[in-house]
Amino acid sequence: MPKLKRAEIAAIVQAGIDRIGGAGSAGRLSRERTDVKQFYDAQSPKQAHASSINYNSMNVYYGTESMKAQLLEVFSGNSRPVRFVPAPEENEATARFRTDYVTHVIFSQNPGFKIFQAIMTDGLLGRNGICKVWWESNYSTENYEIAKPTEEQIIGFLTKDPTARVVAVERGDEDGPLERVRFMCKRNRSQVRIAPLPPEEFGISPCAPSIDEADLVYHRQSLTRSDLIKQGYPRNIVDTLQADDGLEMATDPEFIQRFAATTDAVGTQFDSSSQYGKQRFTLYECYLELDVEGDGRTQLHKVDICGGQILDMEPVNRRPFIDFCPLPRSHDFWGVNYAALLIPTQRAQTHLARAIIDHAMITSNPRYMVANGGLTNPRELMENRLGGIVNVRNVMDSVAPLPQPSLNPFVFQTMAQISANGEEISGISSLSQGLNKDAISTQNSQAMIQDLITVSQTRQKIVARNFAEGFLRKLYSVVYRLVIENEEPNKLVQASNGAWQMTDFTQWPEDTEMVVSFALGYGEQAQEANKWMEIDQYLANPANGLQSLYPIEKRHFVLSRVLENKGIKDADSLILSPDKVPPPQPDPAAEADLQVKQADAKVKMANAEAATENIKLKQLQAHAEHEAAMAKLMHQQMKTDGDQQLKRDKLAHEIALDHAELALSEEALAKGEGFARVSPG
Which Pfam families match (predicted)? Predict the structure, then answer.
């Protein structure tokens, strides 16, 4: 198969956008969200007629805001709603540092509380709340000035910041001292960005079970030509685009309903001047699988399309969208509309309340029957002035109240039943709010009241768990991944205890397990704290013999959980981390006794050493005497051996002389001589 051409890709993407915008389900969804917002704003139901009371019940607003308040308190009031589990060969402090940094990115670098608030509101009012998470590369320049600097100050500034360079130098006169030096420094402001999307800006292909399984998802934005150029799109393509003045989004029913209560200029909020850079366009940032190479294998791509033209296209690893669905439905991306379930209750209570108020007003100020000619001046009765005088011709027959049917006795009973039904639907009961006078009474113990409230919060807990597991876990995972992939390899980061440390994000484990914890309501937080306190008391009790299994590092973790559930976010401000705990100091009396014992031991040691030296000296002396005796004996032995050797030598010499004389005698006799004599030497 041939490769896909740019025009073919644009046609594929545009067809997917048209299917989403033209699908009946998408149209119904938009109308549903608009209607729900009208009930939320107490603009519906409308008055039956102009003269009826303009009263609206607030069931949709009350149910939505009560549920949102519970969720926000649970997940925004907790310093660590998500905890990373230590990886193999990683200690608890390192895992806690990773947790704290990702939490810092969400709640400090980004407005985490406002993001959660918007996502929860959109999810409760519009089935799903959509959040976009991406890495934004941002490099900026900043100027710094030093007045009357010295050479050392200039060198120090340039050494401290390698990106700094001098851009201006001012002197008082040509050869005078420096008055001012200006530096320009490059700053890396890149970071993870998190933004809740308005419901009308997000699109997903019809019948998709999830974002990851959708054929196409997009983010729709209204941008000016200047915005497109600043974002780096090709200038030659941007200049050829036809402006749409932002009417597509400015006239969206959901957008109009959002601002209808606060402005009269809805639909005209964009600058319609003739400025070239202010012309507006609708940009679609689309994510879909494409077989660009034509080899039968698709890959996820991001395609930015505007006016039918592709501005940018690149392969990506993930779709940057995360959703929160309070009441999910199986095998469907869009869940159940929580607020829409309360509309029948609000409609019924509104009509019943209006009937009661109208009846009270009519009975307090009834209409009158007037006999023809019975009034001297009819205007006096029409004015209905308090304490006013009405002149009648005949007191008995001239004026009489018009008969009014009495109020149906079942109205109040019906309203109570509808109210109870609304509590069942929303899961926000008076008991869960602590407002049920029958449950909260002096005859019931605090524990019983807390148990009753906890049982009544079951529906709220399910919604909270959907937020924790379906949204919060994904958010932390995506932010963690973006930090590893894009943060500077070595960055100076401040830990939760205030200490600064150089961090190499590339050394963080690629995959990390996490635990999402939440306690709905203040009572459960106290119970959670008590649970950890009981664990600490049990493990630290010497009677249980678990000291070897409960070292100081584990106890620090347990005590930190106790303090956090008590509302103290920074536990390290009260208890030291194990690596900062000094060694235990001994008791002064025991120390003094130890010193006495050590001194006594030193004396004994000295005495022992002296005795040892004395023994060694005696041994040396005995050894010397033994050596002298042995030498004397050896000398005597040598002398004796010498005398004996001398005697042996003398005897041998005498024998040799005798043999010589004998030989000479024999030789002389042989020659006829009388004798021969041998003299020594």
Answer: SU10_portal (PF23899)
For 138-151, how does the pLDDT look when each residue is reduced to its tens digit (9 = 90+)?
888 888 888 888 88
Distances 11 to 299, 334, 335, 595 between C-alpha atoms, Å: 18, 27, 31, 91
Handedness of CA 257, 263, 265, 268 (dihedral sign): negative
421/429 Cα distance (integer angstroms): 10
Counting residues of the chain whose pLDDT is more than 70, the rounded percentage is: 88
Secondary structure class of 311 (helix, strand, coil): strand
Query: How many Cβ atoms sit within 10 Å of the Cβ of residue 610?
Result: 10
Beta strands (DSSP E) in 119-174 are 129-136, 139-147, 165-171
Q: Give a yes or no: residue 344 inside a domain.
A: yes
- Say yes or no: 16 and 162 in one domain: no
Are 512 and 411 in the same domain?
Answer: yes
Q: Give yes or no: residues 308 and 414 share one domain.
A: no
Range of 335's domain?
A: 66-135+192-199+329-363+407-520
Measured in degrees and rounded to the nearest 5, phi and psi for residue 219 equal -120, 120
How many angstroms separate the CA atoms of 541 and 537, rounded?
6
* Cβ proximity of 328 and 307 under 8 Å: no
Radius of gyration for the chain, computed over Cα atoms and rounded to the nearest angstrom: 50
Same domain flag for 217 and 306:
yes
Q: In this predicted structure, what is the pLDDT of residue 446?
A: 47
Task: Give a yes or no: residue 392 inside a domain.
Answer: no
Query: Does residue 466 contact residue 445 with C-beta atoms inside 8 Å?
Result: no
How many whole angstroms separate alpha carbon 146 and alpha carbon 181? Answer: 5
Mean pLDDT of 243-264: 80
Assess whether 168 and 37 both reside in one domain. no
Domains identified in the chain, total number: 3
In-domain check, residue 525 = no
pLDDT in tens, 68-87: 988 888 787 666 788 898 88
Give the 3-state secondary structure of residue 632: helix
What distance in Å separates the CA atoms of residue 45 and residue 38, rounded to the nearest whole number? Answer: 9
Of 490, 520, 550, which closes a domain? 520
Q: Do 158 and 232 belong together in one domain?
A: no
Long-range contacts: 453-460, Cβ < 8 Å, 24+? 453/521, 453/523, 454/521, 454/523, 454/524, 456/429, 456/431, 456/432, 457/70, 457/427, 457/432, 457/520, 457/521, 458/427, 459/426, 459/427, 460/67, 460/70, 460/71, 460/427, 460/428, 460/432, 460/520
Which residues partner with 299 through β-bridges?
Answer: 290
359 and 503 in one domain?
yes
Cβ atoms 37, 254 nearer than 8 A: yes
Q: Measured between alpha carbons, how far is residue 275 from residues 93, 226, 243, 421 in Å?
A: 56, 10, 12, 56
Q: Supply the pLDDT for residue 445.
A: 45
Q: Is residue 424 part of a domain?
A: yes
Nearest to 323 by CA among 471, 533, 530, 134: 471
Residues 478 and 353 in one domain: yes
Number of Cα atoms under 13 Å in the Cβ half of residue 403: 1
Distance from C-alpha of 322 to C-alpha of 345, rounded to nearest angstrom: 31
Residue 219 vs residues 123, 162, 190, 192, 414: alpha-carbon distances, Å: 17, 39, 21, 18, 46
Which tops the pLDDT comparison, 248 or 533?
533
CB 518 within 8 A of CB 471: no
d(CA 161, CA 145): 14
